[in-house]
Amino acid sequence: MATTTKAASPKKKQGFQGVRNAFWIIVACFIIAVCIFKFVLGNPSNFVNGDPNGAVLNGNLLGTIYKGGVVVPVIHTLLLTVLALSVERWLALRTAFGKGSLTKFVQNIKAALKENDFNKAHDLCDKMKGSVANVVSASLNAYKDMENAHNLKNNQKVAKIQQAHEEATQLEMPTLQMNLPIIATIVTLGTLTGLLGTVTGMIKSFAALAAGGGGDSLALSTGISEALINTAFGIATSWCAVIAYNYFTNKIDKLTYALDEVGYSIAQTFEANHAEA
User: Fold this and answer.
1) N or C, where is the chain less crowded by C-beta within 10 Å?
2) How far apart (Å, rounded) are the C-alpha atoms in residues 156 and 159?
3) pTM for this structure?
4) How far apart are CA 150 and CA 143, in angstroms?
5) DSSP state letter for 99
6) Would you say 222 and 204 are in contact if contact means Cβ atoms under 8 Å apart?
7) What local confidence, expressed as pLDDT, does residue 58 receive?
8) What are the angstrom distances between the C-alpha of 103 and each of 17, 100, 161, 166, 268?
9) For residue 133, which of 157, 109, 166 has the smallest C-alpha distance?
10) What is the pLDDT of residues 76-131, one digit of tens each?
């Protein structure tokens, strides 16, 4: 027979839950990118005779990046957005995982269930906190409710416990996955924006070649610089976005697998303790 469980109070969101309106993050990143483009990359000290419209000083990297044109701050906005949202997701998922080791928490919960010590299981949830603890606590509460539901058959009670677990999981998932679609979009958008800058740069290069004779060497070099710089930053942006997206989705998958494991254990424990003769 299962031991008496104590009533668990409704879990409250604790810690950093994420930025729900990422639009303002994008706006802030755009402003920062424009300022960097104008005041850092476009600083007169990076160019011959202090003229940003003229030639770049020999070997000056900042001036060379500036020659990438107006697409540069757009790509930088995407790159800064990926970095900012990566920090935001890292903080939010750290809160969601709770205060201790997820693997150890799952093991301790399963051990408490094996001993039918649900008070200990609730205590573990209270100490762990986070999304995992919230879901497990909801499943334990459903377990207690089903012990007092004498009008239902055992298979119906097990289904109710599993349903409560799934519903609690679905309530936590939006917080876990928040802003990941933006990072996933930038994976493609970064490359496409880089290609756009490449095309505009090559257009300038061919226009310089077509402008009589051998063409204006400054205009030609500017166009080539714009093409190569934007390609490089577009690829770098997509590279960072891919790594960030895969890292965080893997973390969420790990958390989801742990929840499924505990939910299955709770349902199986109930079924074993209340097996019909």
Assistant:
1) C
2) 5
3) 0.84
4) 13
5) S
6) yes
7) 82
8) 22, 9, 22, 20, 20
9) 109
10) 999 999 999 999 999 999 988 888 888 899 889 888 888 888 889 989 999 998 88
